[in-house]
Design a protein that fits this description.
This protein is mainly alpha-helical. The protein has a domain of 39 residues. It is elongated, with a radius of gyration of 25 Å.
């Protein structure tokens, strides 16, 4: 909404040139948290590790379910995965 080219902020500033721009509260909080996370090397490494762990688990449904529902439910899900047909059934040779 606040794009400088065609957002609400641009429309308001074109009508009222001295209108101040104020970030919304959620955006302000996001900016503060991003700056805080980058303020120390330890914090940056921590958030990089959290992101890497998330990427690892979210790239596989089985790993995600193992993390979320423990191994019992993950085994149930694994047994319901579709298996490919052997080549001998599908070939006409």
């Amino acid at each position: 909404m606040s794009c400088i080219y065609n957002g609400v902020q641009k429309r308001i500033s074109s009508t009222v040139s001295n209108a101040p721009y104020i970030h919304c509260c959620a955006h302000n909080l996001n900016l503060v948290l991003c700056d805080a996370a980058k303020s120390t090397n330890e914090a940056a490494i921590f958030f990089e590790n959290v992101q890497a762990i998330y990427n690892f688990f979210s790239s596989s449904a089985l790993r995600w379910d193992t993390l979320a529902f423990k191994e019992h439910y993950a085994n149930k899900i694994q047994t319901k995965v579709l298996k490919s047909l052997p080549n001998s059934l599908g070939s006409t040779a």
